[in-house]
Amino acid sequence: MTQFSLSEKPLDLAGIGFGPSNIGLAIALEEQAERSGRALDTAYFDRQVSYSWHGGTLVQQSDLQISFLKDLVTLRNPQSPYSFVNYLHRKERLIDFINIGTFYPCRMEFNDYLCWVASHFSDACRYGTEVVRVEPVADRSGVISMLDVVTRGPDGIERVRRTRSLVVGTGGTPRIPALFAGLKDDPRVFHHADYVRRIATQPCAAGTPMRIALVGGGQSAAEAFIDLNDSFPSVRADMILRSAVLRPADDTPFVNEIFAPAYTDVMFNLPEDERAQLIRDYHNTNYSVVDAELIDRIYGILYRQKVSGVQRHGFLCRRQIEAVASDGAGIALTLRDLSNGVLEEIRYDAVVLATGYERNSHRRLLEPLGDLTGDLRVDRDYRVSTDPKLTAPVFIQGFCEETHGLSDTLLSVLPVRAAEIAAALYRDLAPADGRSRRQSGPTGLVAGALNR
Ligand SMILES: Cc1cc2nc3c(=O)[nH]c(=O)nc-3n(C[C@H](O)[C@H](O)[C@H](O)COP(=O)(O)OP(=O)(O)OC[C@H]3O[C@@H](n4cnc5c(N)ncnc54)[C@H](O)[C@@H]3O)c2cc1C
Ligand SMILES: NC(=O)c1ccc[n+]([C@@H]2O[C@H](COP(=O)([O-])OP(=O)(O)OC[C@H]3O[C@@H](n4cnc5c(N)ncnc54)[C@H](OP(=O)(O)O)[C@@H]3O)[C@@H](O)[C@H]2O)c1
Fold first, then answer.
1. Which of 33, 71, 97, 119 is deepest in the core (most CB within 10 A)?
2. Does residue 143 line the site of ligand 2, with CB under 6 A?
3. How far is the CA of 142 from the centre of ligand 1 (A)?
4. Is 129 domain-assigned?
């Protein structure tokens, strides 16, 4: 059942997701409102009941993989009250943090920072509210200057909120390899995105011996391996990866320059084939790679096994999973050794899929807009290029790696991107002369909504 709440005034802006991208946007919009004296009427919808930053992956040993100075604001506005340094100051930990002497706080602390910032915008965020689709609202002449955001709350009822513009910031979706698709309801098989909750329900949490397969060779797999080793002494884990080795993430300073805000222009202005080449060249800064320090720790654990002669964990590299079968006794994986083609079946009690993320949730949400949004190409300001009939601006954050570079899915350029989108929104919805450039009729809604 769908409930329409069209008695409510249309929003100026609906944000889907309230992760770092849209939290960063909320800050940029607040700054813009202060400058212009006009605030946009904005609501953000997030399906999480309360905010957490990849909460299902937050294990003790996990550190931020980027300098804390690349927080939600500092790169754009070091004087912002929403900086990580101000967070430390407010929490009375600034001096202690300095004493640790790191640029890379633990992810639990950065999660707490993000929760702290998000709490300042709690009035604008509807938690526990999943957006299921976005529909066009056409006027008599076929112009679409409004969109309906269809949400579903914990009661399962669909509700509609009308909006004059949209920003999608829904992040990645766990990648489940096709062979495991049939096991999505099996509690013994789960993606790393849900690791913390699901591992706590496994028998090993009560000390029962388990043999666990850990599929993947990226940062997530490495962190899960360390956690299984340190926190679950009854677990024997096999790390199963297609590549020959765990590769280190390249975060050396020259390479790091590709994550600078100025590099977005370089990338965007290149021809398509050269952009694709750059993404391939620098793939090892972010994907299928592991923090070098963590690689040393894993190597050390495996080496000590050799010294002691007690083999607890396995490191199965160059292995392709050929088949998966499950029954009451466990999950059997058939592995092909890519070095010699030999097949081997190994039975596990559980499987953790640290197989990365896909970036396609924006496509599903915007599907009802059909041909109007084409192939979801974006301009430099992250606005989707649409058929001229669709005048309601639609922006996407975190789905523009192909055009804007590898920094797009990370925290790297987030504060600058947020300001670029905020400026574009103000140009469209609240131009300095008080008239909306993209409004399809003299409704006067803009001034009314913005001057509230
Ligand atoms: C485990 C992990 C660790 C990471 N660590 C780092 C790091 O150290 N440094 C770095 O730069 N990057 C890191 N990243 C990359 C990460 O993508 C960014 O840091 C950042 O989270 C991107 O923010 P976002 O808001 O675009 O997406 P997300 O953080 O994924 O937030 C998206 C939000 O949208 C909500 N949502 C999704 N779909 C819907 C829907 N249909 N309706 C309503 N709400 C919805 C989700 O609940 C979520 O709160 C990490 C990624 C992972 C998976
Ligand atoms: N501490 C932190 O800050 C932290 C923690 C975790 C993750 N992250 C970030 O999150 C992002 C994603 O990292 P991630 O490790 O989750 O993903 P990832 O880097 O994309 O790695 C995915 C791994 O899964 C493997 N894989 C994918 N599909 C497979 C299949 N069908 N069969 C077998 N193996 C398969 C890949 O193998 P191939 O290499 O063979 O393709 C790769 O080893 C990165 O930006 C990372 O930095 C950060």
1. 71
2. no
3. 36
4. yes
The closest ligand to the CA of 20 turns out to be 1
What is the distance in A from the centroid of ligand 2 to the CA of 152?
30
Tell me which residue has its CA closest to atom 29 in ligand 2.
355
Reading the block at residue 288, the tokens are 């299928």
243 CB near ligand 1 (under 6 Å): no
Q: What CATH number does residue 127 fall under? A: 3.50.50.60
Domain carrying residue 220: 175-249+286-356
Q: Of the candidates 299, 324, 356, which is a domain's last residue? A: 356
Percent residues over pLDDT 90 in the chain: 92
E strand map for 299-349:
314-316, 319-327, 330-337, 343-348
User: What is the spatial distance between Cα 165 and Cα 422, in angstroms, rounded to a whole number?
Assistant: 12
Model confidence at 452, in pLDDT bands (50, 70, 90)?
very low
Distance of alpha carbon 168 from alpha carbon 297, whole angstroms: 38
From ligand 2's centre to the CA of 290, what distance in Å? 9
Euclidean distance between CA atoms 265 and 91, whole angstroms: 37
With a 6 A CB cut-off, is 403 part of the ligand 1 pocket? Answer: no
Task: Report the distance separating Cα 217 and Cα 215, nearest Å.
Answer: 7
Which ligand approaches the C-alpha of residue 226 most closely?
2
348-359 pLDDT, tens digit per residue, is 999 999 999 999
Q: Are residues 60 and 181 in the same domain?
A: no
Work out the pLDDT band at 431, boundaries 50, 70, 90. confident
pLDDT tens-digit map of 107-151: 999 999 999 999 999 999 999 999 999 999 999 999 999 999 999
Ligand 2 close to Cβ of residue 161 (< 6 A) = no
- Crossing angle of the two packed helices 20-36 and 414-429, in degrees rounded to 10: 50
Neighbours of 373 (CB within 10 A): 22
For residues 104 and 66, state if they share a domain: yes
Per-residue pLDDT band at 25 (split at 50, 70, 90) = very high
- Nearest atom in ligand 2 to 249's CA: 47
Torsion (CA) 7, 12, 18, 21 in degrees, nearest 10: 170
Kindly state whether residue 255 falls inside one of the protein's structural domains. Answer: no
Quote the pLDDT of residue 6.
54
Residue 130 Cβ contacting ligand 1 at under 6 Å: yes
pLDDT tens for each residue of 277-299: 999 999 999 999 999 999 999 99
